[in-house]
Amino acid sequence: MSNIIVTVGFLSFLFSSASGVANKAENWEHKHYKKGQGSRCADFVGHVVKSAGGSPPAGYQKCTSWLKWGKQVNIVNLRRGDIIIYSKVNGYNHIGIYDGNGKIIHRPTRSKTVRRMDYKYRRIIGIRRL
Question: Which CATH number fits domain 2-129: 3.30.70.580, 3.90.1720.10, 3.40.50.300, 3.40.1390.10?
Answer without folding.
Answer: 3.90.1720.10
